[in-house]
Design goal:
- The protein is of the alpha/beta class.
- The chain folds into 2 domains: about 20-90, Orthogonal Bundle (434 Repressor (Amino-terminal Domain)), CATH 1.10.260; about 100-280, Endonuclease, Chain A.
- The protein has helices at about 20-30, 35-40, 50-55, 65-75, 80-90, 100-105, 125-135, 140-155, 175, 185-200, 245-265, 265-280, and strands spanning about 110-115, 165-170, 205, 220-225, 230-235, 240-245.
- The N and C termini lie far apart (about 70 Å).
- It holds the Pfam family DUF5753.
- This is Helix-turn-helix transcriptional regulator.
């Protein structure tokens, strides 16, 4: 047996939520066996930091890790059985494939996005979010649609922190010039992006149409970098999403993102274009 290292730590309130209850039970069972986090994850594909996030209720446990923990701790399938409960509890109104990204955003130190078809969820106003959800989930009841909108807007609480995460976004110019909303609401949406920019919470760049970037027009990208975790890439369509963490693939997509950024307008010119378009929509004109 390996003794658990002594030291100060934060207690887990298991009554706070289902994930916290799950995490507190994990810590209890691990320490009952006298195992460190390093020894507990030994032989799995995960690190001690990952397990620590689960114990604190900040991260869901993947099914393969739950099975590994059950074997190591002799818990007779308990953590595997409770995985689904935790996943549902953390999911809220988000799609199941997107829930890990919502969790990861809160831990990221840098977020970078390429948006080709829709403005990113972190930047959307209520009207823009409603328009998307009403289009892609037309059979939702009103309360279901409202829950989706509410959870999407809540993600933007990240920007309440004046320094973290650092957020960069490349927007294709069609998102500015081909409005999804009526002129007044589109002006408010662009004003919102401009306000975040002037608060120095985001750095937007507009990518004019360019044949060299045509290959990436069907693919949105989100990159998440962390202090003590490997980086992730996330891409999605209207009804699916995929998380990529293979280092070779992450490297390839990051090079592609760098090429998009090199072809985009500088941040200052991009902000000017966004504000000019907002003013045009306010005056019921076509954006210049």
């Amino acid at each position: 047996m390996i003794k658990v290292a002594a030291g100060r730590r934060k207690d887990i309130d298991g009554s706070a939520s289902v994930p916290c209850f799950y995490g507190s039970e994990l810590r209890f069972q691990r320490e009952k066996e006298g195992l460190s986090m390093e020894r507990t994850v030994e032989g799995s594909f995960y690190g001690a930091t990952y397990l620590s996030e689960i114990e604190r209720g900040h991260r869901r446990m993947p099914l393969d890790l739950a099975r590994h923990v059950d074997r190591v701790l002799g818990t007779d399938g308990f953590f595997e059985r409770r995985c689904e409960d935790v996943r549902k509890a953390k999911q809220g109104a988000h799609a199941s494939y997107f829930t890990p990204i919502v969790e990861a955003e809160t831990r990221a130190c840098v977020i970078q996005e390429w948006a080709d078809a829709l403005l990113p969820g972190l930047l959307q106003t209520k009207a823009y979010a409603h328009a998307i959800i009403n289009s892609t989930h037309s059979l939702d009841l009103q309360e279901e649609a409202e829950a989706k909108v509410r959870d999407r807007l809540a993600r933007a609480n990240l920007f309440a922190n004046p320094k973290r995460p650092e957020y960069w976004v490349i927007l294709h110019e069609s998102l500015i010039h081909h409005p999804l909303l009526p002129p007044t609401e589109m002006a408010e949406q662009l004003d919102h992006i401009a306000a975040l920019t002037r608060r120095r919470r985001i750095v937007p760049q507009i990518l004019p149409w360019n044949p060299a970037t045509q290959a990436f027009m069907e693919l949105s990208l989100m990159f998440l970098d962390f202090d003590d975790e490997p980086p992730l890439v996330y891409t999605e369509g209207p009804y699916h999403g995929q998380i990529l963490d293979d280092p070779a693939l992450v490297k390839l997509y990051r090079k592609a993102y760098d090429r998009l950024r090199a072809a985009a307008l500088p941040p200052e010119a991009s902000l000017a274009m966004i504000e000019r378009a907002a003013e045009d929509y306010r005056n019921a004109n076509e954006p210049r």
